[in-house]
């Protein structure tokens, strides 16, 4: 519905992404980012006119996304050719990719908590129905494909840590593909080796069933660790080098990602240092926090139409309740059989209790740590981008949306566990996804009442 009802071009950067697809479909891969591809005055004019047809005479010149890696645009160019450049067809192609992101969220949560289907459903519901996320997944851009790569990688890492059914070589292939998709996947280059190191550390300790990836014993484990890191690195370097070498050849060394060329071309885009000098640090931070939160959940068009005023405090209340519920489930109420509770007194690797290896749950803890690190790295990428440009767009943190969905679902489920202590039954088991699914009527309101206001 969002793809159909959103007026043409009323999603951030959609014209530039569409024109990239058109260039690939017409001229082949890949376009160059050049001076003139960003015309701030013209862009403001057509945005102010809400992309009225009479203002679009120079529309094809909007090409400031031409520095992006090419995978999404190569795939979308097939749809472009088959449909004569239909914007709706390209949007529906993005919706199909977005469905994969939602499925990846569900699969990651099930891999983490195989006996907690309500958590997987709640995580998938949050990923699917954050209003702004839904709008972005229904638009022409490479965000959805990048998130799909992140989702598949997270599922692979969790499966790798817990079951040994996923090999680091395939993780390397996924990360390499991510580098051909969008720079926002770059954090995976460090995340996966961290998971490999953690797994090697776990398997270096006494274990009656050592991992085939890392044989028993510290010496053999170290050799296996180095082998695993090399197996991961080879596809990353080979696949990534395809694009890096091209960028260096056209933009010069060391501009591997075309970002230096992008920064030089987008003359007139608001700079962080200028805004701080103008309004001061306190006002800058206030604007940053407020706009980031609101735009993460819903600011439509080119960030000029928000959710209803009551929606933001309501969302904040639910997030606060989820945070408290997570604390209840993890640490406070020891009666709760929470699947992720972590004792502060982590047992010695040499001590066994009741014949059980005290590290048998370590892979679970490691998977949780990887999810937390994913959310933190997504946030750090966002903050780093804002050190140069004023880009208070919460959507840039969507690579960390799957961990957020899992932890919100766990937090809401913590309240259910507290209420049902001693009940011995699964009453209210679907409480968490039911609360998250309240986003559905909010989305319907946005689609039928807010988005039509974007039309010229």
Give the topology.
Blueprint (H helix, E strand, L loop, with lengths): L1 H4 L8 H14 L12 H9 L22 H13 L3 H26 L4 H13 L1 H7 L5 H21 L4 H12 L8 H16 L14 H34 L7 H7 L6 H8 L1 H17 L1 E2 L4 E2 L4 H22 L29 H24 L15 H19 L11 H6 L2 H12 L6
Antiparallel strand pairs: 1-2
Helix pairs in contact: 2-4, 4-5, 5-6, 5-8, 6-17, 8-9, 8-10, 8-16, 9-10, 9-11, 10-11, 10-16, 13-14, 15-17, 16-17
Q: What fraction strand? A: under 5%
Average pLDDT rating: 88
N-to-C SSE string, H for helix and E for strand? HHHHHHHHHHHHHHEEHHHHH
Strand order of the largest sheet: 1-2
Q: Give the fraction of residues assigned to helices.
A: 55-70%
The rounded Rg comes to: 23 Å
Shape: globular
State the separation between the terminal residues, measured CA to CA: 19 Å
How many DSSP E strands? 2
Q: With helices defined by DSSP (H or I, 4 residues minimum), what is the helix count?
A: 19
Largest sheet features: 2 strands, antiparallel
Which structural category fits the helices and strands?
mainly alpha
Poorly predicted regions: 332-358
Describe the protein in words.
The chain has 456 residues and is mainly α. The protein has 19 helices and 2 strands. The protein has helices spanning 2-5, 14-27, 40-48, 71-83, 87-112, 117-129, 131-137, 143-163, 168-179, 188-203, 218-251, 259-265, 272-279, 281-297, 311-332, 362-385, 401-419, 431-436, 439-450, and strands at 299-300, 305-306. Strands 1-2 form a two-stranded antiparallel ribbon. Helix 2 packs across helix 4, helix 10 (188-203) packs antiparallel against helix 11 (218-251) and helix 10 packs antiparallel against helix 16. It is globular, with a radius of gyration of 23 Å. The model is unreliable at 332-358 (pLDDT under 50).
């Amino acid at each position: 519905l969002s793809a159909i009802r959103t007026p043409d071009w009323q999603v951030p950067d959609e014209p530039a992404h569409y024109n990239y697809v058109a260039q690939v479909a017409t001229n082949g891969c890949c376009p160059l980012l050049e001076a003139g591809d960003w015309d701030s005055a013209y862009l403001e004019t057509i945005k102010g006119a809400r992309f009225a047809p009479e203002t679009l005479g120079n529309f094809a010149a909007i090409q400031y996304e031409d520095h992006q890696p090419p995978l999404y645009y190569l795939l979308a160019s097939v749809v472009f050719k088959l449909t004569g450049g239909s914007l709706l067809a390209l949007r529906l192609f993005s919706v199909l990719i977005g469905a994969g992101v939602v499925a990846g969220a569900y699969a990651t949560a099930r891999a983490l908590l195989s006996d907690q289907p309500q958590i997987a459903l709640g995580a998938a519901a949050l990923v699917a129905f954050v209003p702004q996320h839904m709008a972005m997944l229904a638009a022409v851009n490479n965000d959805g494909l990048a998130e799909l790569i992140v989702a598949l990688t997270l599922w692979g890492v969790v499966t790798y840590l817990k079951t040994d059914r996923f090999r680091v070589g395939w993780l390397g292939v996924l990360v390499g593909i991510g580098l051909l998709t969008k720079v926002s996947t770059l954090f995976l280059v460090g995340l996966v080796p961290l998971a490999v190191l953690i797994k090697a550390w776990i398997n270096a300790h006494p274990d009656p069933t050592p991992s085939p990836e890392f044989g028993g014993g510290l010496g053999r484990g170290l050799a296996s660790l180095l082998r695993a890191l090399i197996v991961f690195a080879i596809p990353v370097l080979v696949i990534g080098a395809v694009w890096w070498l091209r960028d260096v050849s056209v933009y010069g060394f060391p501009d591997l990602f075309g970002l230096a060329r992008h920064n030089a071309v987008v003359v007139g885009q608001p700079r962080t240092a200028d805004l701080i000098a103008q309004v001061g640090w306190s006002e800058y931070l206030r604007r940053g926090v407020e706009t980031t939160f609101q735009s993460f959940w819903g600011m439509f068009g080119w960030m000029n139409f928000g959710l209803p005023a009551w929606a933001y405090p309501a969302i904040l209340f639910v997030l606060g309740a989820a945070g408290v519920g997570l604390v209840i489930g993890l640490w406070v109420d020891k009666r709760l059989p929470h699947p992720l509770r972590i004792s502060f007194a982590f047992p010695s690797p040499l001590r066994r209790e009741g014949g059980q290896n005290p590290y048998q749950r370590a892979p679970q803890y490691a998977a949780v740590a990887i999810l937390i690190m994913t959310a933190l790295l997504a946030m750090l990428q966002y903050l780093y981008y804002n050190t140069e440009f004023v880009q208070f767009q919460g959507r840039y943190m969507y690579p960390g949306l799957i961990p957020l969905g899992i932890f919100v679902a766990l937090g809401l489920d913590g309240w259910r566990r507290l209420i049902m202590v001693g009940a011995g039954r699964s009453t209210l088991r679907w409480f968490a996804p039911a609360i998250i699914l309240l986003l559905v009527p909010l989305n319907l309101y946005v689609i039928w009442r807010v988005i039509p206001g974007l039309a010229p």
